[in-house]
Predict the structure of Cupin.
Amino acid sequence: MVTSAEMEARIVRYGDLRPCKTAFIDAHTPGSDQKENFTIIGGGVSESPDQHVHISIPHGFNIGAAGQPPKCRNSLHSHRTAEVFFVLKGRWRFFWGRWGDAGEVVLEEGDIFNIPTGTFRGFENIGNDYGMIMAILGGDDAGGGVIWAPQVIEDAADHGLVLSEEGKLYDSKQGQTLPEGVKPMPLLTDNELKTYPEPTTADVIPGYVARYWDMVALADRTPAKVIGPDAMLRDRPGFEVSLITRGSASDAMHSHDNPSVLMPVTGHWKVTWGGGSATLAPGDTMSVPEHLAHSTVPSMTGEAALYHIVGTGDPAGPTWQG
């Protein structure tokens, strides 16, 4: 039996999230220097030892978040495995390509974006208030870190930050320098840059973006399969994502062979298992152990939607099929 105390240790409340403001190489670059990064489940991809990990239990995927004030952007980078975002708060513009001009899409609250692997991407808060996007990263090691567009590394050096070839960040403003024998992260060569795809907006949106209200409509009786081999966004990134609403929630007890994660978008949700229960609110993240029988239903009236993520054991491989 799993006790309430044991399960509470697997819940990260929105109000308890601990941000890192020095997680990445663009932490001092104007326009990106106000962003906050959160590592909720797994090791994440932070380049800074200051990053706090809330839950370190391996799930086969990572859960993180980015919080940014209006007009703050995250610089162009790439990953070797999946990077999926859904908007919790605010209005966000995602852009991609070597210079960020190959394509773009604007996402509203609840929308989800399975960003094509191997593509340079960035994002910015274009709303009027502090915004938050939640992230799912493929693999337990999150793909081995971040690959930055060359101009990001060059801009960071002008503002005192240097990244080592091992992916560790050094801040000259704090008197830090690369240790003897350690080389800086090399810039991608022109030939290497040619291997990064430049999909257009028309290429990307149909197969990689799902709108919240479309998913809600599909989830009126059964959960909407959002990411998976037979889902709205067909993919095998190492996890599957579904959206559950009031109409498709069930109090039937069920379990999964791999760890799963519950992330409310709207409404309050009661999770019940053999040893107790807990209530989740938007922005909370709950890790459910494998093989634990549980149920998840709205606990109050009104709109209610929740993202459900479960590991599949598939390799967290490429998503771009251009």
User: Anything to note?
Assistant: The chain has five helices and 25 strands.
